[in-house]
Amino acid sequence: MIMSYVIKRAINKYSCGNTSFILVLPYLNAGYRDNKKNYLDYYDGIEICHGSAAAHYKAAIQIRNKFMVDRSDLVIFYVKHNNGGAYNTMQYAVKQKRQIINIYDSEIRK
């Protein structure tokens, strides 16, 4: 939920215009199921990625991440290291020619 605040600040700072802030879960989890109203206070909408929900749990996050990149014009990351899942997703976004903001590199994280 902390990142949702940072992302909302980034949306305002960069004047992203027609922006929706959607949480995309890789699968239905108990945290969301039991606290749906609290989640809706932070996000414009919540979706469950059906492609990742049907996958093995170890692959579900990467499938969900690619799904989000494919549906986005602007992708906001917090990537500090040149390895790992977030880094791999950022590289996928670059290949897909998406506009990227890495909050780690930005003054917005102050």
Question: What would your notes on this structure say?
Answer:
Strands 1-2 form a two-stranded parallel sheet. A two-stranded parallel sheet has the order 3-4. The chain has 110 residues and is of the alpha/beta class. It is globular. It contains six helices and four strands, in the order αβααβααβαβ. The protein has one domain (2-104).
List the helices and strands and how they pair.
Elements: H1 2-13, E1 22-25, H2 30-34, H3 36-42, E2 45-48, H4 50-53, H5 57-70, E3 74-77, H6 85-95, E4 99-102
Parallel strand pairs: 1-2, 3-4
Strand order of the largest sheet: 1-2
Total helical segments: 6
Amino- and carboxy-terminal Cα gap: 18 Å
How many beta strands in the DSSP annotation? 4
Name a few traits of the molecule.
48% helix, single chain, 110 residues, alpha/beta, two-stranded parallel sheet, 6 helices
Entry summary:
With 110 residues, this protein is an alpha/beta fold.
